[in-house]
Amino acid sequence: MNSVNSPSVVVEASNLSKIYDNTAVVDKLNLTIESGSFCGILGPNGAGKTTTLRMFIGHCPIDGGELSILGQPMPRNASLVRESVGVVPQMDNLDPDFTVRENLQVYGRFFGISAKVLEKRIVELLDFSSLQDKADNKISELSGGMRRRLTLARALINNPKLLILDEPTTGLDPQARQAIWQKLRELKKQGLTLILTTHYMEEAERLCDRVIVMDHGKVMADSPPKKLIRDEIESHVLEVHTANESLVESLKQDPSIARFEQSGDIHFFYGDKLKIALDELENSSHDDYLFRPANLEDVFIKLTGRDLRE
Ligand SMILES: Nc1ncnc2c1ncn2[C@@H]1O[C@H](COP(=O)(O)OP(=O)(O)O)[C@@H](O)[C@H]1O
Ligand SMILES: [Mg+2]
To answer: Model pTM greater than 0.90?
Structure first.
């Protein structure tokens, strides 16, 4: 087990491509991920995130370009790579006929871990995922948050060097999400390299030291999250909810507005001060507005648009 070395570059993709139905869903992707980093991949549905991650672990053939994971050429050395990678897939695939402990046992045996080592590892992982009390429960008896924690524990059974998490917290309540975040932070501290996809901007902002925004199979931005907000977008946003066009036209007269967007009856004014528009709102009878600092979601929308996806 863990027979690959620990290179300083964990992912090296060059012109990596995947074609489905004559469309490049991953389009000449160039990406280098350093060891020990926590990299978040954001992108609308259909952006190509899952397909990219599936190529990383050799679950999907590569149609163009080159890829090496943990210093190993892919897909040639896929089975070797999989010994040192942990995966939390987008869809839970725990075995419903088995208990929590049995799920971990079966998975551990795939990796050829000896029974004695495996038992010890399972105790540690049940503890890590706060599932000690559920060890003998069936999967159907677990909450959504417990299932995700178990899938995370299972992904760690082989002591991976790289952990790949595809939307690990989608659909979880805030407590369950924060429990997962806590675990991921612990893993990062231990030096693990993590790659995560998410639709939760604050998740990426809090956890990741690097955020990649992907759309149509391409990288739209790649930066530490705070830098992304600083570099890609105005500092503040004024959101005004109104159907009153003359109010909107008059607010637009503020020369500090750098950019304007509309979505239904929500009007977004982006800029650095917006003082004139704010004064005007304060002096008007209209009180349905919000003035706030720009965030990662604003960057995401700016880069990928407001249109609904699949
Ligand atoms: N096995 C497949 N066959 C055909 N098209 C696929 C297949 N898997 C994914 N796609 C398409 O590839 C695109 C990217 O999908 P995916 O990688 O799952 O995106 P994301 O994870 O960013 O939502 C989508 O348009 C999807 O419909
Ligand atoms: Mg996906």
So the answer is: yes
* pLDDT the model gives residue 120: 97
pLDDT score recorded for residue 249: 95
Evaluate whether 132 touches 126 at the Cβ level (below 8 Å): yes
DSSP string, 6-59: --SEEEEEEEEEEEETTEEEEEEEEEEEETT-EEEEE--TTSSHHHHHHHHTTS
Structure tokens belonging to residue 91 = 């869809």
pLDDT digits (tens, 9 = 90+) for 192-238: 999 999 999 999 999 999 999 999 999 999 999 999 999 999 999 99
Query: What residue owns the CA closest to ligand 1's atom 2?
Result: 20
Ligand nearest to the CA of 168: 2
DSSP lists the bridge partners of residue 64 as 17
Q: Is 20 in the pocket of ligand 1 (CB under 6 A)?
A: yes
Is 220:304 a contact under the CB 8 Å cutoff? Answer: yes
CB 9 within 8 A of CB 57: no
Query: The domain that contains 258 carries what CATH number?
Result: 3.30.70
Residues in the chain where the model's pLDDT stays below 50: 1-2
202 with 88, same domain? yes
**310 falls within a domain:** no
Ligand 1 lined by 46 (C-beta under 6 Å)? yes
Amino acid symbol at 185:
R
What's residue 5's pLDDT? 76
